[in-house]
Amino acid sequence: MAWGEFKDTAAERRLFQRRALVMLLFVVLLMTGLLARMYQLQVVEHDVYTTLSDKNRVQVQSVPPPRGLVYDRNGELIAENRPVFSLTIVPERAAPIDDTLARLGRILAIADEDLERFKKRLNEPRRPFQEIPLFYDLGESDIAKMAVHRHEFPGVEVTAELVRYYPHSDLTAHALGFVGRINREELNRIDPVNYAGTNYIGKSGIERFYEEVLHGRVGYQHVETNARGRILRVLERENPVPGEDLELHLDLRLQRKAHELLEGRRGAIVAIEPATGGILALASVPGFDTNKFVTGISVADYRALSESIDKPLFNRALRGQYPPASTIKPMMAVAALDSGVTTRDRKIWDPGYFQLREGGRRYRDWKRSGHGWVDLKHAMAQSCDVYFYDVAADMGVDTMHRYLSAFGFGEDATLDVSGALSGLLPSDGWKRAMRDQPWYPGDSVNMGIGQGFFLATPLQLATATALIANRGEWVEPRLLKDIRGEGTASEFLPAETHKPLVLKDPENWEYVVDTMEEVMHGARGTARRAARGANFKMAGKTGTAQVFSLGKDQEYDAEEIRERLRDHALFVGFAPADDPKIAVAIIVENAGGGSSVAAPVARGLFDAWLEEFPAAESAQVAGLSDQSESEH
Amino acid sequence: MALGKSLLEGPADNALGRSRSIWSILHLDPVLMFLLLMLVGGGLFVLYSGADRNIDVVKAQGIRLAVAFAVMLVFAQLDPAVFRRWSPWLYVLGLAGLVAVLLVGVGAKGAQRWLAIPGLPRFQPSELMKLVVPMMAAWYLSRYFLPPTFGRVMVGLFIVLLPMFLIVQQPDLGTSLLVGMAGIFVVFFAGMSWKLITAFFGVVSVSAPLMWFFVMRDYQKQRVLTLLDPQSDPLGAGWNIIQSKTAIGSGGMDGKGWLQGTQSHLEFLPESHTDFIVAVLAEEFGFVGMLLLMALYFLVILRCLFIAVSAQDSYARLLAGALTMTFFIYIFVNVGMVSGLLPVVGVPLPLISYGGTSGVTLMAAFGVLMSIHTHRRMITA
What we know:
By secondary structure, chain A is of the alpha+beta class. In chain A, about 40% of the residues lie in helices and about 20% in strands.
């Protein structure tokens, strides 16, 4: 200290004391400021922050209701719910997120598209501390791996939710439909309250039509959560109302049979119970695994399905619009008899072709040599085209349109089958509007044998066939048989609107059924081989539809073109003929003749429905009683 | 008033030269020691709650505090003359450390703050500067007559600004400001004229906008903006302020009770056992708890200022005063930031927040204060 000894230490001490006093005042002032701030927050604004704190702590959470189950007519479960474990991330807790994702990727095989979807949602506006799903449907080993590594991944959770599962998904894909994730468009449509917490919605079929019934009502709970959103305590709970369980008319056994009979082919089968209109089988083959669609199908899987030449996603039974060909002849016969253009006794000479006038265009019969003299019964049995050319030309388009409309052609006559198309029932007006051309008599001739502009779906053909089986009594096709729970089926089924088709002479129904029996059992019936050895009488009609053209943008190799240019095989019919239990329509694409391919399929269905299944049931009952006896 | 008497005089005075008590043998000040133990003990309770009943955290903090008290004990043994002698060398060493940090330092999140010298635990030279800068400033100014001339004030300020500048480069604005404060308090206690003080604040207020545009990093600006409007970024930086204010405010007059704070236990409050621990205390013990804490802190400051005033030479006085005020600044900045008065900078609540080397530095400072108080000689001025 250079000049220390000369320093005025007393003055320095006094100076320091003054400065210390200033500092003390400074400290007192600032501490008072801090306490004033505390007073402001803790006493003055206490209520505000208490509310904020409670809002933080207590959350109202929605509790999604379990979706109603779906059973077939025998109580077989065809749509159930199973717990699915998914991996979710709360980005706020999992930072740095890229690091978390990279480390997760080393443990789980996360698909690129899942990762992409996650990142997209990460960048969208969202609630704070809301979890974002990354990986759906974790396997058991994945769950185990996550359990082991859980401490390494803050903010990453494995959560369970109930997700739709279809135990017979390939069989029921087209009849039952499926659920999928709610998309943006549906989000605008649904009740946001009732769907709070629900991730899935019916996309097609029964799942879509009965969405409201199946969904149930949302419940809620007040929960205490931490910032992570993890529930610590449930304070109050209002349970959700589960969706109603549905029982369908569908018979899984018949559905399986239908798929077996069409195995390896493309086609559709619709079977209706004439007494109720209940759809016993609604098969479109090939089917697909709807379970893949529930949690979100991968791009590759979807591409494989959508680009498949066999079009498994296409619901042929409801949306396949085919020329009905000769299967329309029973309906034409009803029209011709009732409108009086023909009688049961009237005979026509068939030289192998039909001409509207001498020297005009020749409309060929499928049999080049002709059938000779034919009446209606023989015309039906042998599927004589010329007879129907003749009556169609006589009836004209208006009469045909009137009768065929009464059979449900040209409209969607279903009650609860969503997505059905209406086919095309041409008329004079339609042709003028769509083609800007008048209706030519030649168009009527083509229409008489179900060709030309006329298109029908398998479901429409089955419905019209059921109308004949019922002798004019309308039953609109439906899938819902019963509701297990509060409601009844009739509450939820739309009202039936069709009037019965009353003929001037009701006996004509029996006559047309007779002609259809002749197809099956007559000496020259086209389906006689398929009906051989049956223990019951059946009525039916075969058909063979020409495939006119391929889509312009479709490129097939020559082999496939040949295969896909082949005729479609069709069949409509019911059995037993005098007390119909089942009416069917069958189309097998590019399979050739209806009599050789489609009729045996129908026979298989009839046998199964009328003999196999009842026999198996009684055997089971007998077996059960045997067992109970042996126990005594 | 008995408390006031013991605070301002204490048994240590009686020990001078006469019957040497255990306190004077250990060179500890019993009053300060008692207050520190009260704070530390209460702090452990709050920490247990803030760490969500994690006893391991409390144990680790206990060990840390034991080490810090040991450091205090060591510093208390050294004569203030030793500190004074070492001041310039420690300062040079500290500057070298800061330069080394910038050249070869290690760190995280884009900041280099640590020096990793093989064989030694990692340490932050900037932390050391909180002690060394006021030592150096006190050493320089106390060599001359006080109050210092204008030129010496400028030199004193340069002594303070040089390490500040180096620390800002790391970047670590918070520590830089604390180091600067410690040094500037020395200059203030030395008797820097009020004219200069006014001018100094003038310069600061002019340079603040310049700092904003040329020195501050984006994240630092963000903190200031967030303070002004926490709702502008409710999920990012604003989240902390909103949640800590909610914790404090919902505590009310007498709090939710120990371990009953929903904000902290439900994980809404960030860093509830480190920088934001005062929010836990405010939530669980309410305004009453805050009053008690502030009272304890105030008594510590009062005792320390008394030690400073009763110190025997200018060096000791200036150093003791500056260290006391640095301690206060810690409290003010931490509580101010948690209650939303100041921007969020990483300043812990002294003696209560978990972790950090700042606890050791603080206790070393208390060691220096105790040394100053217990090494007085019977010299009458």
